[in-house]
Amino acid sequence: MSTPVNVAVIYYSSTGTIATIARAIAEDAERAGAQVRLRKAAELAPQAAIDSNPAWAANAEATASVPEVSPDDMVWADAVIFGTPTRYGNVTAQLKRFIDTLGGLWQSGQLADKVYSGFTASSTAHGGQESTLLALYNTIHHFGGILVAPGYTDPSKFVDGNPYGTSHVSGQGDIPVGDVTLTAARVQAERVVKFTRALKAGLAAES
């Protein structure tokens, strides 16, 4: 009997690119045998700003049924996959705000010894994808987490080219998520589930 694995996919998305990737990663993790929670970070922008951008407003409506993330989702998870668009080469304020609420869990050691990974999107190919994921991964080191990035562990990774995590170039919102990004999402989700299961089984065998 395989070891059960809980995966939380926690993301922030404004115009929908990251939300699309998050759903794909959640579905791929489920197909790999994990129990999955798909959760979004709470919006901080005023409604007027959202309404001023049709894509942003449409994504807010389309994802209205996705539960907002809470610290309990971090406790529940054996693995956490964070998703954020790049903001000047860093994570969004919305996701960072959630992470900043986790001090109590960090102090009590409840964020350590879990698997973590991340995905992102930007308007251009050099719009900060790598620096965003590296900034996110700096936080994982502070958690005492175990980073599982995709690397170049599958032939498809030489096509999308990002060893840090799934990423997508969205242009001005006019480049939809396609097969290259969805393949990267699958590879990353399967790798996270595989190594989380192995880690959890190994720790159980030692106890």
Structure description:
Residues 7-207 form the Flavodoxin-like domain. This is NAD(P)H:quinone oxidoreductase. Belongs to the WrbA family. The chain is α/β, with parallel strands linked by helices and 207 residues long. The chain has nine helices and six strands. Strands 1, 2, 3, 4, 5 and 6 form a six-stranded parallel beta sheet that branches. The longest helix is centred in the last third of the chain and has 28 residues, at 179-206.
Layout of secondary structure:
Blueprint: E1 6-11, H1 17-31, E2 35-40, H2 47-51, H3 54-62, H4 71-76, E3 79-85, H5 93-99, H6 103-107, E4 115-122, H7 129-143, E5 146-147, H8 157-160, E6 167-169, H9 179-206
Parallel strand pairs: 1-2, 1-3, 3-4, 4-5, 4-6
Protein name: NAD(P)H:quinone oxidoreductase
Family: Belongs to the WrbA family.
GO molecular function, one term: NAD(P)H dehydrogenase (quinone) activity
Question: Would you kindly provide a brief summary of this structure?
Answer:
InterPro entries: Flavodoxin/NO_synth (IPR008254), Flavoprotein-like_sf (IPR029039), Flavoprotein_WrbA-like (IPR010089), FMN_Rdtase-like_dom (IPR005025). With 207 residues, the chain is of the alpha/beta class.
